[in-house]
Amino acid sequence: MTVELVRGQNHPLPDTRLEIRVSAGHPVVAGATLGDEGGRVPGVEWIAHPGSPSLPGVEVSQQAAADHRLAIDLEAVPAAVHRLSLLLALPVGVGGPTRFGTVAAPFVAVTGLDGTEIASYTITGLDRESAVVALELYRRQGAWKVRAMGQGYEGGLAAMLGDQGLERPADLAATILEAVARGMARSVSAPPPRVPETERVRHSAPAVAPETTAAVDSSPTLPVTPPPPPLPSTPLPSTPAPSSPAPSAGSTGAGSTGGGPISYAHPGRRAAAPEPEPRQAPPVPVAGDAGGWSMDERLYNQVWGMFEDLARTTAAYRSACDFAESRLDKELDGVLSDPRSRIGGAGDAAREAARARHDELTGRAQEVLDRDLAQLAAESEVVEPALPPAYARWDNPVWHAYRVPMEAPMALRLGDLHLPERTDLRIPMLVRLPLERGLWVDSGRGRSEAAGLLDEAELRRLALDTAVAHAARLLAVYPPGEFTVHVVDAAGSGATALAPLVEAGVLGGPPAVGAAGVTAVLARLTERVDLVQMALRAGAPDALPPGMDTAEQLLIVHDFPHGFDDRAVNQLRYLADEGPAVGVHLLMVADREDASAYGPVLDPLWRSLLRITPVPDDHLADPWVGHAWTYEPPLFPSGSRILPQVLAQVAEARRQWGR
Length: 659
Hints:
Lipoxygenase-1, 12-stranded mixed sheet, 5-stranded parallel sheet, 11 helices
């Protein structure tokens, strides 16, 4: 069954030997880049383009053409390759259109070697762009998937290659365009014709899909160069002749090698539906199957892969629903604007047909979303029990076997994230260690519906409880003597919530109270930042005063700005800005409205901190698609004794280390 993708949507690939077909309606340059797990292309030797068309497992055309077939063997690509990106570009500088907005929307399809279409994507929405990343094939849980990208670049080839992480992308872009201009070498070997020559129907102009709204270029089609023998140095799989009946005349000719014009009939429009292929079972999730040097790193990468997959599949679903709604509105407007549809049943029939098309599109989008969410849920059920203490929830049994670690982890769990499409699918929110920015537990109501249901005292208590949970986890994941916690509780109102830390003896000193206590703690930490900065600038990090605590420092500030004068506020801002680079971090527990008397003076402080909440709140946005993620704070199970047990082990390890 063919899947028509929308931007951001992914689909599993049932095989590793594939073809990628491109129909653009106008000559384009096709290329491919091989990327590592982070998506970076290490160098020009990882790029297949008209001047260098062959890579292990990949072969592309050596000329600009309106129709391309790229041969792909994913088993033959190097083991370090995790992503293969299909690049399309207009041959700017050699004549013809200079932006995709003036030509037909490119159509790409991933097919099996027998020509059976697996997934297709029509790249709509392009305007001033002259280059686009069309598709991405990527590894996920040991299997390969295809994702519709549609990422365009107004800066053309150079901008697109630069975004892939290449040095001197303009030079490579010039090399590619020069190769295209000279018509270098040969094109990729085309597969055998699918129908006898006498049965082919030749088209004089490309056929455009009904959905395409871009202008169609009227330039003549290009003949296909007869294919030369394949290079022996690149043993890509040959395409077998199809065993299925020949397709109808209206859908043939795309792979013609007889020198005649190419047919650009939409590959997704078939006269007869192909026999359905057996559905491939989804890959069985395995904890820690992502790349990395250690299990912690592999689990970290896997968690963020799950986060990215959830973000993209939800974005694809929402995009499909938005498209369906806009198309329905447009079709209904067309019905109302046609006077002929206002008489008789023609208008009702047209409206019903429009709504049926809308329901069909949203139904397909929902099916894909449900499939992807089910796979992610199955992966979560496998990954969650395998997480180490730094990544695990407080109710994970791993905490009952907790032992103080000998080295710090690479990340820390701050809570969970979910989207409204499936609220029970929660992704761990992991941040790298050491912390790159401070934390702010917002004790105010803000716009949170959950916070609005609580009274002010209860909300403030929950905020400090959340801060204590974060501090306890930080103490638990660092080796003895490598993390110190200080507390400023100027009004003394947090004694109950802070009791577990105080009674366990894991703080660097008793909580500071009153204005004098605030001044003393801030002065000590500010001096530490100054001394470490001077030592680092002088290139003598070992030349610190004897007895200085070189561990990472965390300052918990409760009930800000109570007990703070102007000097103390400036010192706090200094610690927020300069502290993380030298191991001094802030954990603020405050309501921003309480400090409103300072006006915009404190705005940089709040912006420098990562805001988290003591109750669920949908205020966090991701950098990919801008979803509003709901954050859920870490909670201890009701009646659990895990916090005092963990802190007791931390305290004992600190005593043993200090002997």
